[in-house]
Design brief:
By secondary structure, the protein is an alpha+beta fold. It is built from 9 helices and 11 strands. It has helices spanning 10-21, 26-37, 40-61, 65-76, 86-92, 94-101, 115-122, 152-155, 238-247; strands at 128-129, 133-134, 138-143, 146-149, 158-167, 170-179, 182-189, 201-205, 208-215, 218-225, 228-234. Helix 1 packs across helix 3 (40-61) and helix 3 packs across helix 6 (94-101).
């Protein structure tokens, strides 16, 4: 009998990874969960990924020697080899390989920043007042020269406040916008771009990929500006988020 795990496509593996970290879109979740429920092998694979994510979160919160030793021991533990599965995992990359080895996770490893962490920062309340507008197109706040857009005149979204924080050891800034009772949060993380979350839906605008995912129970779009990761999430449709994200790319 063939191994059901070895028969999975790269897309199916990515969806399984997204189910583990909570970024799988709602319209796909039921089907993927049914597939997992029907396969003990997939259940074991999913559980290993969730354990790896839990270990990584523990290391970020409390990087004790015992936890690091536990992760190291987990990585050294021999696992049955699946000849047909391993080559395809190499093609998918580290994010999907984590499903099998259980020691490397979707965020890129212990302590690595992630788009999900940026969304967690955005879920917090602003700590500073709204920045002023500059020329009606951008706001008087930026991170490493990447300015935040002013959506007031063009789309009716008014800046409400700012929060500065850290994402995986990097500086990050959130600008909050409001339109009636709806709210949006726009995050820019300093440094190189973060790994894209699995299971998203990509849209190309002007040659730039905008990936729509669900983060912190909100629909979000993530992309790069000037090599930095941006995340826009909140009370808006996928089409509106992509439109707002792609309006200002400088």
């Amino acid at each position: 009998m063939s191994d059901p795990v070895s028969q999975l496509s790269e897309h199916e593996l990515a969806e399984l990874a997204a189910l583990a970290d909570g970024t799988l879109p709602a319209d796909r979740r039921a089907e993927v969960e049914m597939r997992v429920a029907a396969s003990p092998e997939l259940q074991a694979l999913l559980e290993r990924q969730r354990q790896s994510l839990a270990l990584t979160k523990a290391l970020e919160d409390e990087p004790s020697a015992s936890l690091r030793a536990a992760v190291g021991e987990r990585a050294r533990t021999p696992r049955p080899r699946r000849r047909s599965f391993a080559p395809r995992l190499a093609a998918v990359g580290v994010a999907v390989a984590a499903l099998v080895v259980g020691a490397v996770v979707l965020t890129g490893g212990p302590g690595a920043p992630s788009v999900a962490e940026a969304a967690e920062l955005a879920a917090k309340a602003p700590t500073e007042p709204a920045p002023a507008s500059i020329g009606g197109s951008k706001l008087a706040v930026d991170i490493q020269g990447i300015a935040f857009p002013d959506y007031a005149q063009s789309h009716g979204w008014h800046a409400l406040g700012v929060r500065k924080g850290r994402v995986g050891g990097r500086d990050a800034i959130v600008v909050y916008y409001g339109k009636g009772t709806r709210r949006l949060a726009y995050v820019i993380v300093s440094g190189d771009g973060l790994p894209s979350p699995a299971g998203g839906q990509a849209t190309m605008v002007g040659g730039i990929p905008y990936q729509t995912v669900r983060l912190s129970d909100k629909l979000a779009v993530t992309w790069e500006r000037g090599g930095h990761t941006c995340v826009l999430l909140g009370d808006a449709s996928r089409a509106e988020l992509v439109t707002l994200a792609s309006r200002y790319v400088g």
